[in-house]
């Protein structure tokens, strides 16, 4: 069972922290089974104040005797981290990389031949077990490795398996996605304020409405347009609101935003200055 396995998380930053927080819990991972690392000594206190796990700055020590090594550092730090841990990795260990833009081939070139690599693209709602993670596998990954990676990310939300060439699109859609929705919520809440609602109430109305709409989509598996039609009464008020959205080019703006983010995701590992 995946939860009997031990995990090292290299890079307990925003994403690493969200994933670990989602993983620890009754019937899931024990905090003793997870060890994390950060780059700066001062970050240790930050992690310790939020997560009850062992944490330090020594990656070699952290990966020792771990079944799974999750890497959640910035893309530009991957080369350094992989070269650092490569001599200490053994073939039984599974590497799961969450780094944007870094391919399984890139990782396989830097670790001993035969080490299994799975690439994961989660998002921060993992902290509340409401994450969305896309997975793809490297050349040496067997079904058991894919199953292990899936079990890890299923315990913090939903998972989907995709071809690796689609991972930049996934990054732009579901990894960046929470940011788009926060802007939508902020804007709609502003509208409520303009109409006289207290900001707190307005934000609650919008957030719960977004959650409800997502639940309707997930439970019905209906096309979003069909669900939209159920809310849109002929000659009612929703159609007037929708017409404004069309005039403001909401659809094309969202499509272009995701395409732009995917283009950036494709280049991230190459365009940033190498840093330790
Ligand atoms: N944030 C998201 O929503 C999200 C979603 C999907 C994928 N990702 C990907 O996940 C990765 C991490 O993103 P993030 O937003 O979590 O970044 P972040 O908050 O900057 O976290 C990166 C962490 O890596 C640590 N680190 C850097 N170099 C290290 C080293 N040599 N050894 C050990 N730890 C090291 C940093 O330590 P210090 O704290 O000491 O600096 C920091 O805690 C990126 O590749 C990103 O593209 C992020």
Explain how this protein is built.
This protein has 12 helices and 8 strands. It is an alpha/beta fold and 276 residues long. It has 2 domains: 2-164, Rossmann fold; 177-265, ProC C-terminal domain-like (ProC C-terminal domain-like fold, Orthogonal Bundle), CATH 1.10.3730. An 8-stranded mixed sheet has the order 3-2-1-4-5-6-7-8, with helices on both faces. Strand 5 (94-97), helix 5 and strand 6 (116-121) form a beta-alpha-beta unit. Helix 8 (177-194) packs across helix 9 (199-220). NADP nicotinamide-adenine-dinucleotide phosphate is lined by residues 10-16, 37-40, 43, 59, 72-75, 77, 80-81, 98-100, 121-124, 175, 276.
Any chance you could write out the topology, listing elements then pairs?
Blueprint: E1 7-10, H1 14-23, E2 34-37, H2 41-50, E3 54-56, H3 59-63, E4 68-71, H4 78-85, E5 94-97, H5 104-110, E6 116-121, E7 131-137, H6 143-154, E8 157-161, H7 167-175, H8 177-194, H9 199-220, H10 224-231, H11 238-247, H12 250-271
Parallel strand pairs: 1-2, 1-4, 2-3, 4-5, 5-6, 7-8
Antiparallel strand pairs: 6-7
Helix pairs in contact: 7-12, 8-9
The structure holds NADP nicotinamide-adenine-dinucleotide phosphate (NAP).
């Amino acid at each position: 069972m995946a939860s009997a396995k031990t995990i090292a998380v290299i890079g307990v930053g925003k994403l690493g922290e969200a994933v670990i927080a989602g993983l620890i819990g009754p019937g899931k991972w024990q905090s003793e089974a997870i060890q994390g690392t950060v780059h700066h000594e001062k970050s240790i206190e930050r992690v310790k104040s939020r997560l009850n796990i062992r944490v330090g700055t020594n990656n070699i020590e952290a990966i020792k005797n771990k079944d799974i090594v999750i890497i959640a550092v910035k893309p530009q730090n991957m080369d350094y981290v992989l070269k650092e841990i490569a001599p200490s990795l053994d073939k039984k260990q599974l590497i799961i990389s969450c780094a944007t833009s870094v391919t399984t081939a890139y990782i396989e070139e830097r670790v001993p031949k035969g080490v299994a690599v799975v690439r994961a693209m989660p998002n921060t709602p993992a902290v509340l077990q409401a994450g969305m993670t896309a997975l793809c596998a490297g050349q040496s990954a067997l079904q058991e490795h894919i199953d292990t990676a899936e079990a890890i990310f299923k315990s913090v939300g939903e998972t989907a398996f995709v071809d690796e060439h689609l991972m930049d699109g996934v990054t732009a859609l579901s990894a960046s996605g929470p940011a788009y929705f926060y802007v939508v919520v902020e804007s709609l809440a502003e509208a409520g304020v303009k109409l006289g609602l207290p900001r707190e109430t307005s934000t609650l109305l919008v957030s719960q409405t977004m959650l409800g709409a997502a639940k309707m989509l997930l439970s019905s598996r209906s096309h979003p347009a069909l669900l939209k039609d159920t809310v849109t009464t002929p000659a009612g008020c929703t159609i007037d609101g929708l017409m404004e959205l069309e005039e403001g080019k909401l659809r094309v703006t969202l499509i272009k935003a995701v395409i732009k983010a995917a283009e950036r995701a494709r280049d991230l590992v190459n365009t940033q200055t190498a840093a330790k």
